[in-house]
Design goal:
about 290 residues; six-stranded mixed β-sheet
Length: about 290
């Protein structure tokens, strides 16, 4: 299959044939900056790229002037995929912030040419850092007079006017912080923290589930005890009712006995009265 090249492909290729980085340390810093700035600007209209060719102007014949900043930020441009950043297709908005992470193969002349290129084509902030020697410098444009102010460790802690991130240099090298003070972390460390946080959350959820199960068991036991108490109360009420019934029957028997006794006494009294009258009449009732 033969691919046909357009004039634009020839004038503005999407690759310069150079590797993204010369070593793992340089690559680590590029990924760290790109991924954290991506997250920082996730809710803003901005385009963040790493090692993407930037073509600031159109040309009629090659070579087209270009640079591939290790990390670049273009505010006011939508997120999305691009093969390169062709500025005339981006409302003529240049990247406002660029980062360069130096490797041993970079020369001072090369960095000066990059600075000149970025300054000529509208970059407002440019930062350079060598992660092996810990050398750091930057240039920030004053939008009033368009002059650049140098940024060096003497200015630290330095806060980026556009990004709000803070740069500090320690014994073990450069550290970059979010506006809220959190340090920039490598994606693998973030994933590790997330995994540990998820594991902790899972353990907490497991403990909560266990506590809930124990609470449910205690509630079940309480309900069972209440049911048993209600049953005992019901049995007690039944016994009391039976006792009251027995007492009522006893009282009724006593009443009947008293009535029988009263009737007997009445009969005896009547008999004695009759016998007494008979005796008055001279009749001995015992002989009857």
């Amino acid at each position: 299959m033969v691919l046909s090249l357009t004039i634009e492909d020839v004038l503005y290729p999407d690759s310069d044939g150079k590797p993204m980085s010369d070593n793992t340390l340089q690559y680590k810093w590029i990924v760290r900056l790109k991924s954290n700035i991506d997250y920082l600007l996730k809710d803003q209209e901005s385009f963040v790229a790493g090692d993407l060719l930037w073509y600031p102007v159109q040309v009629k014949e090659p070579p087209a002037p270009c640079q591939a900043p290790d990390v670049m930020v273009a505010f006011g441009r939508p997120k999305g995929e691009r093969g390169s950043y062709k500025q005339w297709k981006e409302n003529d908005i240049p990247p406002q912030v660029v980062f360069e992470i130096l490797s041993p193969s970079n020369t001072a002349k090369e960095m000066l040419l990059k600075q000149e290129f970025y300054g000529t084509h509208g970059v407002l902030e440019m930062y350079f850092y060598d992660p092996e020697s810990f050398d750091f410098w930057g240039l920030v444009r004053d939008t009033r007079d368009q002059e650049f102010t140098s940024v060096a460790p003497l200015n630290f802690p330095w806060i980026s006017p556009l990004l709000g991130i803070r740069f500090e240099l320690f014994d073990d090298g450069l550290a970059v912080f979010y506006p809220d003070g959190r340090p920039f972390e490598d994606p693998v460390d973030i994933l590790t923290d997330l995994t540990e946080a998820q594991s902790s959350l899972n353990r907490t959820q497991l403990s909560l589930n266990q506590v809930q199960a124990e609470r449910d068991q205690v509630k079940e036991e309480r309900d069972q005890v209440k049911e048993e108490r209600d049953q005992v109360k019901e049995e007690r009420d039944q016994v009391k009712e039976e006792r009251d019934q027995v007492k009522e029957e006893r009282d009724q028997v006593k009443e009947e006995r008293d009535q029988v006794k009263e009737e007997r006494d009445q009969v005896k009294e009547e008999r004695d009265r009759v016998f007494a009258k008979l005796r008055e009449m001279g009749i001995d009732p015992d002989t009857l």
